[in-house]
């Protein structure tokens, strides 16, 4: 049993390292990160906010990154306006009950979003129906979208100002890539708005 566990752990390390090496070798990823940071910084400097949405592990990322901006990342500074649309169970269940699960994020973007805001939409497949409906509303309201997906980009690929397509088809590898890029965005937004 111990040998089987060791083999599994090594295989997971190998896949994760291969995924991160592919990301590190992609010069286009650096350009995308710079563009996404610029979009977020422009919105925040204009008094707008960043909205986050996703399902499951991506919901956890939405909450995590909103928390990094509202609280702090590397150092103390004033809070930045960010909202995870994944956290209010009364709102989520009311929308799910009244309109259906596909509208859980769209309705919140409709209610809370303003032109000039940014929506960070996270879906490993790029095909989550409730995330895609949120994109519909964002487009109607003049809200820029930064997407996080897997290798194909799914239906989100052509609908985002920036779409981070982590080069994997395995959900855990995609989520690991998302977490890394999300941390980069939080760190860079923080340092751009509040340079030390």
Automatic annotation (TrEMBL):
<keyword id="KW-0119">Carbohydrate metabolism</keyword>
<dbReference type="GO" id="GO:0005737">
    <property type="term" value="C:cytoplasm"/>
</dbReference>
<dbReference type="Pfam" id="PF13580">
    <property type="entry name" value="SIS_2"/>
</dbReference>
<keyword id="KW-0963">Cytoplasm</keyword>
<dbReference type="GO" id="GO:0005975">
    <property type="term" value="P:carbohydrate metabolic process"/>
</dbReference>
<comment type="subunit">
    <text>Homotetramer.</text>
</comment>
<feature type="binding site">
    <location>
        <position position="183"/>
    </location>
    <ligand>
        <name>Zn(2+)</name>
    </ligand>
</feature>
<comment type="function">
    <text>Catalyzes the isomerization of sedoheptulose 7-phosphate in D-glycero-D-manno-heptose 7-phosphate.</text>
</comment>
<dbReference type="GO" id="GO:0008968">
    <property type="term" value="F:D-sedoheptulose 7-phosphate isomerase activity"/>
</dbReference>
<dbReference type="InterPro" id="IPR001347">
    <property type="entry name" value="SIS_dom"/>
</dbReference>
<dbReference type="GO" id="GO:0008270">
    <property type="term" value="F:zinc ion binding"/>
</dbReference>
<dbReference type="InterPro" id="IPR035461">
    <property type="entry name" value="GmhA/DiaA"/>
</dbReference>
<feature type="binding site">
    <location>
        <position position="175"/>
    </location>
    <ligand>
        <name>Zn(2+)</name>
    </ligand>
</feature>
<feature type="binding site">
    <location>
        <position position="64"/>
    </location>
    <ligand>
        <name>Zn(2+)</name>
    </ligand>
</feature>
<feature type="domain" description="SIS">
    <location>
        <begin position="40"/>
        <end position="196"/>
    </location>
</feature>
<feature type="binding site">
    <location>
        <begin position="97"/>
        <end position="98"/>
    </location>
    <ligand>
        <name>substrate</name>
    </ligand>
</feature>
<protein>
    <recommendedName>
        <fullName>Phosphoheptose isomerase</fullName>
        <ecNumber>5.3.1.28</ecNumber>
    </recommendedName>
</protein>
<feature type="binding site">
    <location>
        <position position="175"/>
    </location>
    <ligand>
        <name>substrate</name>
    </ligand>
</feature>
<comment type="pathway">
    <text>Carbohydrate biosynthesis; D-glycero-D-manno-heptose 7-phosphate biosynthesis; D-glycero-alpha-D-manno-heptose 7-phosphate and D-glycero-beta-D-manno-heptose 7-phosphate from sedoheptulose 7-phosphate: step 1/1.</text>
</comment>
<keyword id="KW-0413">Isomerase</keyword>
<dbReference type="GO" id="GO:0097367">
    <property type="term" value="F:carbohydrate derivative binding"/>
</dbReference>
<feature type="binding site">
    <location>
        <position position="68"/>
    </location>
    <ligand>
        <name>substrate</name>
    </ligand>
</feature>
<feature type="binding site">
    <location>
        <position position="68"/>
    </location>
    <ligand>
        <name>Zn(2+)</name>
    </ligand>
</feature>
<keyword id="KW-0479">Metal-binding</keyword>
<feature type="binding site">
    <location>
        <begin position="55"/>
        <end position="57"/>
    </location>
    <ligand>
        <name>substrate</name>
    </ligand>
</feature>
<dbReference type="InterPro" id="IPR004515">
    <property type="entry name" value="Phosphoheptose_Isoase"/>
</dbReference>
<feature type="binding site">
    <location>
        <begin position="123"/>
        <end position="125"/>
    </location>
    <ligand>
        <name>substrate</name>
    </ligand>
</feature>
<comment type="similarity">
    <text>Belongs to the SIS family. GmhA subfamily.</text>
</comment>
<dbReference type="InterPro" id="IPR046348">
    <property type="entry name" value="SIS_dom_sf"/>
</dbReference>
<dbReference type="InterPro" id="IPR050099">
    <property type="entry name" value="SIS_GmhA/DiaA_subfam"/>
</dbReference>
<keyword id="KW-0862">Zinc</keyword>
<feature type="binding site">
    <location>
        <position position="128"/>
    </location>
    <ligand>
        <name>substrate</name>
    </ligand>
</feature>
<dbReference type="GO" id="GO:2001061">
    <property type="term" value="P:D-glycero-D-manno-heptose 7-phosphate biosynthetic process"/>
</dbReference>
């Amino acid at each position: 049993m111990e040998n089987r566990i060791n083999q599994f752990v090594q295989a997971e390390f190998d896949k994760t390292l291969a995924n991160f090496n592919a990301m590190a070798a992609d010069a286009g990823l650096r350009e995308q990160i710079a563009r996404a940071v610029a979009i977020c910084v422009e919105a925040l400097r204009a008094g707008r906010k960043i909205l986050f949405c996703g399902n499951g592990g991506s919901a956890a990322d939405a909450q995590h990154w909103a928390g990094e901006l509202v609280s702090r990342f590397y150092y103390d500074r004033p809070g930045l306006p960010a909202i995870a649309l994944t956290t209010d169970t009364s709102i989520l269940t009311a929308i799910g009950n009244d309109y259906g699960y596909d509208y859980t994020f769209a309705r919140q973007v409709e209610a809370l979003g303003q032109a000039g805001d940014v929506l960070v939409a996270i879906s490993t497949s790029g095909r989550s129906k409730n995330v895609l409906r949120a994109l519909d509303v964002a487009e109607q309201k003049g809200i820029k979208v930064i997407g996080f997906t897997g290798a194909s980009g799914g239906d989100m690929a052509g609908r985002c100002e920036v779409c981070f397509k982590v080069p994997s088809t395995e959900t855990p590898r995609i989520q690991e890539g998302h977490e890394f890029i999300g941390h980069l965005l939080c760190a860079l937004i923080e340092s751009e708005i509040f340079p030390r």
